[in-house]
Design brief:
By secondary structure, this protein is mainly α. Helix content is about 75%, strand content about 0%.
Amino acid sequence: MSNTQHEQSVNLASSMGKTSDFIQENKKSLIVIAATIVGLVVLFFAYQKFYLAPRETEAVNQMYKAQSYWEQKEWDKAIKGDGNFPGFEKIIAEYDNTKSANLAYYYVGIAYLNKGEYQKAAESLTKYNGTDAILAPEALGAAGDAYVELKDYDQAVTFYKKASSKGDNLFAAPIFLKKLGLVYEEQKNFKAAVDTYSKIKTDYPESATATTIDMYIARAQGKL
């Protein structure tokens, strides 16, 4: 064995000895740490199974009537309830941290948007945190709509960008990009408007929105 190999062996043995000494010296502390981690894992799964899951089921059973009112465009009853069944706002208040409460933010936001209460719409829609391929971009786009109505164009730009990125498909993205272009025109940012409209033409040429986008491109170019 060479001197180098011998030294490496000695160093390895020394390191292993130090590790063993550390474990022996801190045995009680390590056991406490391990027990704490196991306890936290057990508590997490117990919370999921015995607290959150039953609340989720209860929330689903409670909100079906509000969903029915929402589909019928009875916005006030959908939001506030009808005296016998809770509305979405009560679902949010009483079943926080559930998927149903998160979904209720979307329903409430759309309801307020249709009622013309745009600040409340924006507040609710921006609290919805979903990954659904349809609802997630729609919520972001609707938030953009609310901010347009509030004339908060910077926020509208932010949310239309997010919506077009989240809904990167032939149907959703061109719609939100067109709305984004319109907001840029409102801000007199005609270069950004042209670029945005052109993106519809190049990236989504088969979309319905693309069939008339040349008109918008020409209008924005004419104002450069």
